[in-house]
Amino acid sequence: MSDSPILLRVRGLCVAIGEGEDAVRPVDGVDMEIRRGETFALLGESGCGKSMTALALMRLLPPGGRIQSGEILLDGVSLPDLIERDMRRERGGRIGMIFQEPMTSLNPVMTIGEQIAEAVRLHEPEQARNPRLRVIELLRSVGLPDPERRTDEYPHQLSGGMKQRVMIAIALAGRPSLLIADEPTTALDVTIQAQVLDLLKGLQRQTGMSVLLITHDLGVVAEAADRVGVMYAGQIVETADCGEFFRDARHPYSRKLFQSLPESRKRGRRLAVIKGSVPSPRRRFDGCRFADRCDRAGEPCQGQVPLCTLVAMRHAVRCHFAEEPDLSATGPGSIDPTPADAGRNPPVQAPLIEIKGLRVHFPIRAGLLRRTVGQVRAVDGVELSLAAGRTLALVGESGCGKTTVGKAILRLIRPTAGEVLLQGESLAGLSGAALRKRRADMQIVFQDPYSSMNPRMPVADIVAEGLRAQGKAGKPDQLRARIAQLLQQVGLPEEALDRFPHEFSGGQRQRIAIARALALDPKLIICDEPTSALDVSVQAQILNLLKDLQQQLGIGYLFITHNIAVVSYLAQEVAVMYLGRIVECGPVEAVLETPLHPYSRALLDSAPIAEANRHVERQPLQGDMPSPSAPPPGCHFHPRCPKAQPLCRETYPKESLLESGRRVSCHFPLGLVLDSWPGRVGMYSCPPFRGRTG
Amino acid sequence: MMAYIIRRVLYAIPILVGVNVLTFVLFFVVNPPDDMARMNLGIKRVTPEAIQTWKAERGYDLPLLYNGQAQGLEQLTGTIFFQKSVKLFSFDFGRSDSGRDIGYDISQRMWPSLAIAGPVFLIGLLTTIGIALAVVLFRATPIDLTVVVAAVAMMSISGLFYIIGGQWLVGKLLRLIPISGYDTGWEAAKFLVLPVIIGVVGGLGSGIRVYRTLFLEEIHKDYVRTARAKGLSENAVLFRHVLRNAMIPILTMVVAAIPLLFMGALVTESFFGIPGLGSYTIDAISRQDFAIVRSMVFLGSVLYILGLLLTDISYTLVDPRVRLS
Amino acid sequence: MMPELVILWTDALIFLLVAGILLFAGYARRREPLCAPWRKVVRSRVGVASLIVLFAYVAVGLLDSVHFRAQDAKGVETGEVLSLFDRIASPLRTRQEKTYSAPLALHLYAKENIETPDGNTVRDYPRLEHAGSHLATGSAAILDQARLLLVGAFEGLLLWAGVVALLAGLLAWREGSGFLQQMEVLFTGDEEDIPWTTVLVMLGMILVLGAASWQLAQHYHLLGTDKVGEDVFYQALKSIRTGLVIGTLTTLVMLPAALLLGMMAGYFGGWIDDLIQYLYTTLNSIPGVLLIAAAVLMLNLHMDNHAEQFGSVQERADMRLLFLCLILGVTSWTGLCRLLRGEALKLRELDYVQAALSMGVGHFTILARHILPNVGYIVLITLVLDFSGLVLAEAVLSYVNIGVDPTTYSWGNMINSARLEMAREPVVWWSLLASMMFMFILVLAANLFADAVRDAFDPRLRNER
């Protein structure tokens, strides 16, 4: 592919939004080339201008935005110079585009058939009279099951993955030579992400189109791209072939990105962080844009704009030190040499919290009298236990019930059945004042740093809220001192006290949220995806902080996440959840290295890993997760399971208890592994698991 | 879906009961019928006999809630509450305080009301949507700004001014059409033109603003970007995608108003001397005829609830997300 | 001797409202999230311009809300209750003519039999008693009026210069910079700050217009007189208070109920929600005008039958005004309640409410500390959006005779009495036009201000205009 002709050439692209002094330049001199049939990944953290670049290529910039300078040549045609009517022919014609949010990107009141037909009519006049055949052909090519029936359905009747397939079908209607995919899988679960990435790859092989893949995820790059461009503050700072990039990234920013990725081999060490935060797009630069945050920044970096230097074949870096050997001599992906912490795996003590047979069912009401006609079994018999000072990760895809487990433990949702024992004391019977008192021991940190704080309260009040509610506030100056100390503990200055949440970045807000949780000296913190809304470099800071706090204070974490990499870095135990039940549970090394349940296996396989040439052959899971209101009979996983047998369709597997606390619910745990498992303890049945077994 | 609609219909019953109780309290408990009689007969020098006769003629001489003197079921039916309030449920409005059959009056008067309110509603809707769409097409240009400013100015003018000024300008100054009055059949048209024009113009300002905001809200949604990325022209995006989605809130807003068209326009009708329900109400208010006001309250509530019901139904019809779930 | 103050119900509520606003301003000064949107309002040209117009109206309204028992020259109470504004405008109030006269006219509008000094009776337009009475002949009126206009305009300009100097001085004191420097800022404007040039222009217009009208009104009937010969300009100014009272108090009287019920319905859900929803759907289903009509008729009846409970005519009229606010409030709070319910429903699921729950914070504390501050903007937007609608509604209701007391000055009453004269030849147009103009300016300013407020407070619409 490296010798195929160039399809798209972008030179010095600048995008401005607004006029005069207030103008913001989210894209500020982007150069790139995309060859025919190649996948070019544009990698960057939020706010770096990667989506703006894509919209500029389509000439679909938001109101007030315009291409200020630069050239965009698509197969020799200069896109900025086209009149609007001709540009419309290119849009959806030679350039197709798909977006991040499949949920909202389709018109809710038009059938998907109509929406695809619209594109067909525009770009294939010969099909205009009867586009239906072409629509069905397109739907089939994107792997939508039963396309004849589906064309007459509305978007809300499809799952997220299917909607993204429809989006791809719309983009393919004009037989594009360039497909721009703007974070196409970010809103999707990992198993669905794997399906969509595979689909894109397959389509690319068939049609020979080029793909501009915009992503923030190094794993996705490794999985799908041929070439990669790293974008920072409106510029591309490094371009290379994918293999070369993962072997030998040269720009300090790229290297830092690798180092801040959580991985199992970095367990027990601190992750590297990038100091400071992304510069504002209003800022004008005199030197290197990364200089303020760079460990290597030297004399030339502040005053002199670095040029793109070719360091190897087709590998360009925008850095003054691109050709000098790296001082730290750590290759990309290598480990930050910060010393390992001592108590890597704290000793297992008596359980801090035990969850027994937890069920949360939501009634489905219908009919004239709103009678309960069914149950959404969001959580359907979950058993977990966690010791003080340890981390239990609860993993699963969205909709599997993991967040509900967290909320049910805190009694933010009333459990339908089951028990939660905190230090041996049951919380089930508590209510009113007694419950409020006990709540101090369990706190929660949420995913979204923006909605987790009342925007109208100053930080001091936010952090003090729990103390006040528990009557532990004390005198005003004592309280203030305590809050200042808490803020210092999470790495925020005392001045933060009187400021308001909107003055802080996402990472800083997450620190405030952690301080708020710490205020009550909890024994357990439920972390509900605390880092998934954050950029990689910020995620590293928060993970480091959580780890430090656990060591200092001996808090137990129930870490709810979908990110396997974070689990492998942080947790000691992991529980895999599918459709309201735990399918596998055990020590993290064992489960992640030798998963016993086919679903755990699939989850691990689907998670993209940021390593060179990791184009492994795998069987992506087919289909979507069924609705918890109507779980399949027998084993819930059997419709998607590659190893399903007739038995799986009939009965839900009993839970097998294995050595070292490992548990799995599968009739046929991945055989090979099971046989080689030395001390397989005899199976015993767990009575609480009596779901709908046919 | 059927179950849903039936549920909504059933939900209307307690609301109507509530309205009924409320009006009963307002009309008979706050001021007992004696006071009403006294007021109608003139406050000064009323003999108790005169009050009794007045009450007896109009059926207000019964006890409020419980008739101890009657037998059996009569104990409940022989009360003001049953005779005057409960009977409304069968659309038996009874007689006005001046002795006319209210039900008959309503059935006669609702057509002239509809003859004005209907055209005002339809023409108004089409014009406002049309202008709003045009404004959205030219958004962020001087045209947009001009129309928005004009709309704000227009909605700051009192409706009374449109009516009085309109009549003065068109009727009196230009002498184009008769100032007021009404006729039967097609002859009525010439009396309707002016009120209809005034009605449409009076609603233009706020209408344009509401619809413009609705369209603008829609135009920033993700699916519109998808439509543009397909290569659709701005017109196609606006008409095929934005309008279709914006029609859902518009339609439901509009449907709720349809039943109330029968109630007519209060001021317009009385000002132009059109014998509709609006002027009927105004006359009743100025004559202090409580029987009519009470009937109109009930009728208005029924129509309002009908509007809510139609809204629910139209939602399920137009929005596939509701229809198919 | 100091005249005895009389505090009418609406006066009390108005001053309560003003005190509340001042208290809130003091509280918000140090809290950036509360100030920021307001700063945005005053930084938009339209926002600040409409605010100044509103201030002018409010100033008249407040002056008209300080009531006291009138005394004659000897300090004996006359039994009348007057306001501060009446005192200031007493030349307008006291100079009553016989009947209609056109704006700035010297003669009545209708011919009368006049006895000439020689004993004959002529049928002619008689001279007005008070308008231009300082002139010997009517022919000099135009010149005299032009002179008064110029004098007034000049006074207005002087006043304006004084205000500007005061403003610059205040700014210089606050910013700690020079007076002249601030003058320059005022006249050239500053990109990031309040659009001072707009402020100056608006202030100038209002002051010049006001002073000129004042000069003319002292010697003539600026906007003519009505059927009983009362000065229309005075009536229009007096109506301001009524309009403001209805526009603000209506929403405020039912605000506590709407807030509490709306937030509770959304936050608690379940049967509480069902009950509250039932309540407001029922109320909402009664057509507003009819409910108002019924209630006002009932009130009239009640007041007629129990006239002894209400002291003076003025107190009676004031009670009717307050009651009208109350009943208008009852018909209009449901919309706010529904909005608040929806918002509380959203807020209750937000993480910070969940976090508060998990820390053991009580429900009512959450309502007060988390929900209430975050629905504040809805209340404010509703308040300003409803204001103009209510001012317009007052006119219609008074027109239908179910509005304010016929003795209360209001634009609706003015229109109501003027419409009958539209049939006269030639038309008596000034009462109608005067009330319409006063109302239009207020409502337009309120609408524009509402837009500015909504843009600043509602984040969803932030990028629209």
Report on this structure.
The complex is a heterotrimer of chains A (694), B (325) and C (465). Chain A has 694 residues and is an alpha/beta fold. Chain A is built from 22 helices and 24 strands. In chain A, the strands form 4 sheets. In chain A, strands 6-7-8-3-9-10-12-11 form an 8-stranded mixed β-sheet, with helices on both faces. In chain A, a hairpin with a 5-residue loop joins strand 23 and strand 24 (663-665). The longest helix of chain A is centred in the N-terminal third of the chain and has 18 residues, at 190-207. Chain A is globular, with a radius of gyration of 27 Å. The model of chain B has no long low-confidence stretch (mean pLDDT 83). Chain B has helices at residues 2-29, 33-41, 48-58, 74-77, 80-85, 102-137, 142-155, 159-173, 189-219, 222-229, 234-257, 266-272, 277-287, 290-318, 320-323. With 325 residues, chain B is mainly alpha-helical. In chain C, helix 6 crosses helix 7. Chain C has a domain at 239-464: MetI-like fold (Orthogonal Bundle), CATH 1.10.3720.10. Residues 461-465 of chain C have low confidence and may be disordered. Chain C has a 3-stranded antiparallel β-sheet. In chain C, strands 4-5 form a two-stranded antiparallel sheet. The chains are: A alpha/beta (694), B mainly alpha (325), C mainly alpha (465). Chains B and C meet through helix 1, helix 2, helix 7, helix 8 and helix 9 of B and helix 11, helix 12, helix 15, helix 16 and helix 17 of C.
List keywords for this structure.
heterotrimer, B: 325 residues, mainly alpha, MetI-like fold, 2 domains, 15 helices, 73% helix, C: 465 residues, 3-stranded antiparallel beta sheet, two-stranded antiparallel ribbon, 5 strands, globular, disordered C terminus
Biggest sheet features of chain B: none
Beginning-to-end CA distance, first to last residue of chain B: 9 Å
Uncertain residue segments of chain B:
none
CATH topology of the largest domain in chain B: MetI-like fold
The first-to-last residue Cα distance of chain C is: 56 Å
What is the C-alpha radius of gyration of chain C, as a whole number of Å? Answer: 26 Å
Order of helices and strands of chain B: HHHHHHHHHHHHHHH
| CATH secondary-structure class of the domain at 239-464 in chain C | Mainly Alpha
Global mean pLDDT of chain B: 83
Structural class by helix and strand composition of chain C? mainly alpha
Number of helix segments of chain C? 17
Basic shape of chain B: globular
Please count the helical segments of chain B: 15
What percentage of amino acids of chain B are in beta strands?
Answer: under 5%
Please trace the helix and strand order of chain C, writing H or E for each element. Answer: EHHHEEHHEEHHHHHHHHHHHH
Helix content of chain C: 55-70%
Number of domains of chain B: 2
CATH top level of the largest domain in chain B is: Mainly Alpha
